[in-house]
Design goal:
Keywords: Hydrolase, Membrane, Protease, Transmembrane, Transmembrane helix. One of its GO terms (molecular function) is peptidase activity. The chain is an all-alpha fold. It is about 70% helix and about 0% strand. It has 2 helices and no strands. Helix 1 runs antiparallel to helix 2.
């Protein structure tokens, strides 16, 4: 999710589309939160690790 967010963020910045930039930023943020929760051992969505 973080990689997809980075790709959308870069494409949005290069093309100049604010919508892609916003979606990319949101995906990076959500991916980072899920990664941190999974790294601390907390179950996310019934799974111990978020891949």
């Amino acid at each position: 999710m973080i990689i997809l967010g980075l790709i959308l963020l870069i494409i949005g910045l290069l093309v100049g589309m604010g919508l892609l930039t916003t979606i990319g930023g949101i995906l990076i943020l959500v991916g980072a939160i899920l990664w941190i929760l999974g790294a601390t051992g907390r179950a996310v969505g019934g799974r111990k690790h978020f891949f």
